[in-house]
TrEMBL record:
Positions of the HTH asnC-type domain: 9-70
Domain of life where this protein originates: Bacteria
Xref: SMART domains: HTH_ASNC
Family matches, as InterPro entries: ArsR-like_HTH, AsnC-type_HTH_dom, Dimeric_a/b-barrel, Tscrpt_reg_AsnC-like, Tscrpt_reg_AsnC/Lrp_C, Tscrpt_reg_HTH_AsnC-type_CS, WH-like_DNA-bd_sf, WH_DNA-bd_sf
Presence of the UniProt keyword Transcription regulation in the record: yes
Protein's recorded name: Lrp/AsnC family transcriptional regulator
Pfam families, per database record: AsnC_trans_reg, HTH_24
Protein source organism: Rhizobium helianthi
Length: 153
């Protein structure tokens, strides 16, 4: 993990963040061993990092292609209105679409870049046509389909 702004974090805190990012199920005993602290101070630091919002949560990483969800497409979305109210309405609506894995507001020739994962191109077409294109203020979309995922987190 690359660290740009560390604030009040020291080298031990940064090591904890790196280890937890790599393995969220790591035991405190193993974590302490890897970063060079004893268990009690390591646990206190981990709790502080959670309490202060540096660690937002822990989750399982599911092998989605194994479940048949191996079609990934990226949709560029241009809005007809980019005033704050329109952006908020779009943001709230896009958050409710389960096939959307990521949605990023972009500064450039379009307004949003959306990562959508489905079973196949037919289902993607349905999601795009029935869900995304009908969201508030969507003027146009353009799709790129991923041929291979080289790196994902």
């Amino acid at each position: 993990m690359q660290h740009v702004q560390t604030g009040d974090l020291d080298a031990f805190d940064l090591k904890i963040l790196d280890e937890v990012a790599a393995d969220g199920r790591i035991s405190v005993t193993e974590l302490a061993s890897r970063i060079g602290l004893s268990k009690t101070p390591c646990n206190a630091r981990l709790k502080r990092l959670i309490d202060e919002g540096y660690i937002l949560g822990f989750r399982g990483v599911i092998n989605l292609p194994k479940l048949g969800l191996d079609h990934v497409a990226f949709a560029e979305v241009k809005l007809s209105d980019t005033r704050e109210k329109a952006l908020t309405e779009f943001n709230q609506a896009i958050s409710r679409i389960k096939e959307v894995e990521e949605c990023h507001m972009i500064a450039g020739r379009f307004d949003y870049l959306i990562k959508i994962r489905t079973h196949n191109i037919r289902r993607y077409r349905e999601v795009l046509g029935e869900k995304i294109s009908s969201l508030p203020h969507v003027a146009s979309t353009s799709t790129s389909v991923a041929m291979q995922s080289v790196k994902e987190r």
